[in-house]
Amino acid sequence: MTIDSLKTPTVALGTWAWGDTGETGNGYFGSQMTRAGLEEIADKAHAAGFTLWDTALVYGMGRSETVLGEVLKRYARSDYQLSTKFTPQAAGTSGDPVADMLEQSLTRLGTDYVDLYWIHNPADVARWTPHLIPLLKSGKVKHVGVSNHNLSEIELADQILGEAGFRVEAIQNHYSLLYRSSEDAGILRYCHSHGIPFFAYMVLEQGALTGKYRPENPLPDGSNRAEAYNGMLPQLKALTDKLASIGRKQGAAAPDVAMAWAIAKGTTPIIGVTKPNYIDGLIRATRMTLADDDIAELEALADAANVNTRGWWEQVL
């Protein structure tokens, strides 16, 4: 059985925040987006060659997938890649909850296949991983990956898929200057030695590493990310100042440098895109080269900040 290799982009487009309702105080991010604004983002991304969109059923409990599906109707299906997820914690009680959740996602996304389907969290690797095999065989899923799994869970999932002639083709974990657990646990090394793409989410720590937010200008009131990050903003100032100063030398901004760092580490950052001008930053990040000294200094400043940004949904790797 031949497996077409996953076409891995330099940067993937995240739509977690597209699940917000847009009402103040109602949503993880506190983002307000319009359909026209999202179409402008998509057009700009499309023109720049960014074509992999990452979503999940649990982002707004279907809202992100629905909105994304509507926005992408303007392109031929062959012009973009879709990445979505099976979340065990939201599984139904039927005989095949994975196939059922996929069908719901396909309907919302307005497509008959997804390019990349993930098991979102490692609830029970031996139980859930085999369900991916018939979906791969049917063609409804082209490639599979695992998210938030530790190294032994990744290896078990790969073994289960391998017995049917498939493999874990991608890993997706939280990875940023402030949270390098996948590196410390040997997962990045495992990916690089096995030729497995590593997708890094929360590279900008939900905006905390953009330099835009300060104690005097905190993250949006009433949002989950404000609760998670506003208390640590004073500790992040030295790091975000350094990101900004490296950026200035290259005609770029602090978030572009944080993304370029993730790319330099051999990962594909998944960047949440909620404004059209964010696409300009992605372009700058992909063109930037960071010196080894800059990478070392950024990591030292990140360590000195001494903050823990592990999400409530994440296990210790």
From TrEMBL:
Residues 11-302 form the NADP-dependent oxidoreductase domain. InterPro entries: AKR, AKR_Detox_Biosynth, NAD(P)_OxRdtase_dom_sf, NADP_OxRdtase_dom. GO terms for cellular component: cytosol. CDD domains: AKR_unchar. It holds the Pfam family Aldo_ket_red. SUPFAM superfamilies: NAD(P)-linked oxidoreductase. Keywords: Oxidoreductase. GO terms for molecular function: oxidoreductase activity. This is Aldo/keto reductase. The lineage of its organism: Bacteria, Pseudomonadati, Pseudomonadota, Betaproteobacteria, Burkholderiales.
